[in-house]
Each structure stands twice: as structure tokens, then as C-alpha cells.
Amino acid sequence: MIPIFSVAAAQAGLPLASITQRVIESGWYLMGRELAGFETEFAAYLSVTNCVGVANGTDALELALRAAGVTADDLVVAQANAGFYGSTAIRAIGAIPLYVDVDPQSLTLSPAALKVALAKTSTRCHCNPPIRTNGGHGGPLHAVPRGGDHPY
């Protein structure tokens, strides 16, 4: 069984009250020093030059898909249990989701189901970033097919 994500455990020991108070007192609920500090620190953590904070995961997925070259009418693989946010990001671009079932153990995209879905289409597909639901720890992404007759 995959353990359910615990917000209390994830936030244990973090000074969230003081951070929240600092944001409220600054009056900068969007943008501002806190966001700039996060972007700088997170970029350093990832060993990259830049990081851009966005409003939510749906916006992040949409930006990632656009950066990957997804455009209107493209077919994008979407994890069937990922909820509306992946579909919303895909549809915001005008692309079309191709829903693929999940692995019953990891609850993430099933490489076997992906192979079956790709075999049913001759359209070039893009692969949506894998979504970890319910605190899942990921699946066997090394088994996801790459290139071949279905580049994505």
C-alpha cells in the first residue's frame, strides 16, 4: 500500500507561522521579496541558473508543456488518475489529452498501458510529466518507451 501524504509530517518543524506573518505584513501576496528569495534558493538547490515561481501546479504544467513545444491539436499523454489539472493544462494550449491507465502498485503512469495507447495512434504524441497522486513515490518510468514510431 502506498502511504497517503501527510501535510503535518511534511511541515513538521517549519516556521510557517512566522513566514506567513512576514508575508502578510509586507503586503506582497504576489511577487515580492519572498518569491524572489524562493526562486533564487530553489534554483541553487536544483543547480540551475533560473527558477520561476508560478501560482499553482496547473500553471507549472502548462508552462512545461509549452516549453516542450506542445501546440494546439497536439496529442499529449495524460495520466488517467491525475485529476483535472493535467487536462486543464493540456486544454489551455488547445492540445488533446490521451488518457493512459496507471500502474496498480505505484498509481503512476503504466509503461505497459502507454505502449498500448501509443500503438493505437499514428499521431505524434507528447508525454505529460508524470503526476504523483496521493503521496505516491513514483513508478517504473525507466520502462516508458522513447522515440521509435512515436516520438514525444
Provide a concise account of the structure shown.
The protein is mainly alpha-helical. The protein has six helices and three strands; from the N terminus they run H-H-H-H-E-H-E-H-E.
Question: Overview of this structure, please?
Answer:
The chain is mainly alpha-helical and 152 residues long. It has helices at residues 7-11, 16-26, 32-46, 57-67, 84-93, 111-119; strands spanning 75-79, 96-100, 125-127. The protein has 6 helices and 3 strands. The chain has a 3-stranded parallel β-sheet, with helices on both faces.
Architecture (CATH level 2) name of the largest domain:
3-Layer(aba) Sandwich
Strand coverage percent: 5-15%
Tally of strands:
3
Q: What is the third-level CATH name, the topology of the largest domain?
A: Aspartate Aminotransferase, domain 2
Structurally, the number of domains stands at 2
> Treating each run of at least 4 consecutive H or I residues as one helix, how many helices?
6
Q: Helices and strands: which structural class?
A: mainly alpha
Mean pLDDT: 81
Which runs of at least 5 residues are low in confidence (pLDDT < 50)? 148-152
**Distance between the first and last residues' Cα:** 31 Å
Give the CA-based shape.
Answer: globular
Question: Widest sheet: strand order?
Answer: 2-1-3
What is the name of the CATH class of the largest domain?
Answer: Alpha Beta
Note the main sheet.
3 strands, parallel
Q: How would the blueprint of this fold be written?
A:
Elements: H1 7-11, H2 16-26, H3 32-46, H4 57-67, E1 75-79, H5 84-93, E2 96-100, H6 111-119, E3 125-127
Parallel strand pairs: 1-2, 1-3
Helix pairs in contact: 4-5
